[in-house]
Write a structure and sequence with these properties.
By secondary structure, the chain is of the alpha/beta class.
Length: 251
């Protein structure tokens, strides 16, 4: 597998790259909001997707594109969280990712689109969910969207799911890659606080809808049950927060 990108997802995929020749994994998309540069960031990703899709079409390789299964796409009240949910995205980011998906589908290349939930693991960048929560907790104050929930997935489980899906040879599919468990952000903060030994003040801001990501298509296509318990998120946080605290201790 050829990996385009050098971030968290790209690094996680390197362990399975030799197993999947003929695949180009595009792991270099927009992952954060930079208000002063947002249009440049979106244009950059659109140009990169177009370039890589053309390369794959000319070479007969399969393009693996990573979209989103976050609340930006599935956060509209009443959305089923399935890949064919027709509810409108809640943000420019969700709209952008849908536009990139359409660009891939219409490019003429062989493709597989994976919609990723909130991946968690060592090596994440500071702006991502868990590192940001840890930094806030250690700083004594956490900002929370009232009523928000998040589906957390350990990066190792993401790699295992991607490995299985690529191994089947499927293409022309859009698949959610998630735990299928929606956890209240308050509960996530509770566990982060316990792990960091803090008791941060919680500031609640605008209302957010609870969203759930369906993994029925993932189960069907990968021929694996993929069942995660109610406390799955705690194990995910144990590993990630522990690594973050050890890293801070060595600075």
């Amino acid at each position: 597998m050829e990996i385009v990108g050098n971030g968290f997802v790209a690094g996680a995929l390197r362990s399975i790259a030799p197993r999947h020749p003929g695949v180009v994994a595009l792991a270099a998309g927009v992952s954060r909001i930079r208000p002063d540069y947002v249009h440049l960031d979106l244009a950059r990703e659109a140009a990169l997707v177009t370039e890589q899709a053309r390369r794959c079409a000319s070479r007969g390789t399969r393009l693996l594109y990573f979209s989103t299964a976050s609340a930006a796409l599935y956060g509209t009240p009443g959305c089923s969280g399935t890949e064919d949910c027709r509810h409108a995205p809640r943000s420019w980011y969700g709209e952008h990712k849908l536009a990139m998906e359409q660009l891939v589908r219409r490019s003429g290349c062989r493709w597989l689109i994976l919609r990723l939930t909130h991946l968690v693991g060592p090596g994440q960048r500071p702006h991502q969910l868990v590192p940001a929560l840890v930094a806030q907790a250690l700083g004594g104050r956490v900002r929370i969207l009232r009523g928000a929930s998040r589906d957390l997935l350990d990066v190792d489980d993401f790699v295992a799911m991607t490995d299985l899906l690529l191994g089947t040879g499927i293409e022309g599919e859009t698949v959610n890659v998630a735990s299928g468990r929606s956890t209240e952000v308050d509960a996530i903060v509770d566990h982060v606080a316990a792990l960091t030994g803090t008791d941060p003040v919680r500031t609640y801001v605008e209302e957010a809808s609870r969203h759930t990501v369906s993994i029925e298509r993932l189960r069907s296509l990968s021929a694996r049950t993929w069942t995660f318990g109610e406390d799955y998120y705690k194990g995910v946080l144990d590993r990630s927060v522990g690594a973050l605290l050890r890293e801070r201790a060595t600075r």
